[in-house]
Amino acid sequence: MFRIIFIFVTLGLGLFVGTQFSDQQGYVLISVADTTTEMSVTTLVIFIVAALAALFLLENIIKRGFRATNATWNWFSVRKLKRARRYTNEGIIKLLEGDWNAAEKKVTRWANHHDMPLLCYLIASEAAQGMGDDKKREKYINLALEHDKNSLAIEMTQIRQMVRNKQFADAHSSLEKLKGRYPNNTIVMNLLKKTYLNLKLWSLLDELLPKLKRANVISDTEFDQLFYQAQLGKMEEVGEQKGINGLLSYWSHLPKKLKQDENIVELLIKQLLVQNGDSEAYVILRDILKQSPSERLLPLITQIQLPDIHPATLLLEGIVKKHKESAEAHSALGELYSRELRWKDAQQSFEVALQQRISISDYSRLADALEQQGMKQAAGEVSRKALTLLEK
């Protein structure tokens, strides 16, 4: 636009000057070697303007030609990009469907023309992982690294593949590095959970669980399950490494809230029994049952092997006096009476327990107590009832 205005302004000035000096046009002499050219000033001005117009026109034609070339090139490039994207999308669908071979072919076919080839190679790597082809998997990972060596997506893909291949030690090593850089990344935390579980890193799992819960990575139910699994794992480690004294020290350092948790108490008692710490287990269980006779903890007293079970019997007798409706207390007391060969007392305890709830094991013990007293017919009826319950 500026050039057109410039030409018209120049032409106008030339015409104006020409009319002003129409009777005094003068002349211009141009001599080159043996050639001379003469013309009026007006003619020279018109010639220059025409030459400029011709140059501007030529420039415009050349630019339009380049634009047409670029447009044609861009059209082909966009067409290839659209096709690459379409194949990649189809490849992702095939990957989700589990058609690994088709997924690999589609995403790699036009990967060089995709605006994000990294994505294509990562999908191809996942497809190779699905086919169990380790060489191809590594090949595509290396191709992805050529496009971005510091990509988190590549690291996460490699770690997920390690976990699926059960290379938990390698995955854990990589995840520990990522944990510092991405402490709140939910995928990193979830992968850490899997490696901690499989490597039995119970203390680390115990530390991670609150973060998993806050980030809604796990449900309340899974949190409870993993929490008690971690506590059991830690107790097993302490028991294996430090024995009974280690377990007692571990118990003494637990927060009060955990000491009141029936699940934790049960885990500790069982670990003490594994380490043959029956007397120590009885002392802890006795003190807890005196404060609160838990239906869950009461059966544990029958699992403890004591040289003298009379104190345990007295403990349970005191509990059933205060809590007559406690079926587990009567059942445990009946078991101890049986060990002391007090069959009549055992019979009464099992009968009271069975009035509160149905238990096949108590029916079996009751039948044994009746048989020991010579009441074979009654024992047979109780046994048949127990068999009927088993059949249901």
Automatic annotation (TrEMBL):
Record-linked Pfam families: HemY_N (PF07219)
Transmembrane region(s): 38-58
Location (main, coarse): membrane
Keyword set, alphabetical order: Cell inner membrane, Cell membrane, Membrane, Porphyrin biosynthesis, Transmembrane, Transmembrane helix
Domain HemY N-terminal: 26-132
Record flagged with keyword RNA-binding: no
Descriptive protein name: Heme biosynthesis protein HemY
Keyword Cell inner membrane attributed: yes
Pathway membership, UniProt: Porphyrin-containing compound metabolism; protoheme biosynthesis
A GO cellular component annotation in the UniProt record: plasma membrane
Cellular localization per UniProt: Cell inner membrane
Protein function: Involved in a late step of protoheme IX synthesis.
Membrane topology: Multi-pass membrane protein
GO biological process assignments: heme metabolic process; porphyrin-containing compound biosynthetic process
